[in-house]
Amino acid sequence: MKHINISEDIISLSEFKNKASKMLHNVQTSHRPLVITQNGKAAAVLISPSDFDHLTEQTRFMEAVQKGLDDVHHGRIISDDDLDNEI
Questions:
Q1: Angstrom distance (rounded) from CA 15 to CA 30
Q2: The whole model's pTM is what?
Q3: Which of 26, 31, 21 is nearest to 55 (CA)?
Q4: CA-CA distance, 18 to 5, in Å (whole number)?
Q5: Hey, which residues does 38 pair with through a beta bridge?
Q6: What is the predicted pLDDT for the residue at 5?
């Protein structure tokens, strides 16, 4: 996913409604998120399905790494020799 281009990637809800098909196409081809505002405040962020999948996968990976680090911190590990003996 690319970075937001402030001049192009923040639009009002009414503008999004008027140009929804074009905006969806732009999000899918540019891989830049689209911020949709309502009453002058950010209300939603639209990303492509592939970017969503990437973010979800990245989050699952980071959670697994954190769980491993927590296990090490709390001593929930076994040595290589003990693992070899169990196998």
A1: 19
A2: 0.75
A3: 31
A4: 20
A5: 41
A6: 84
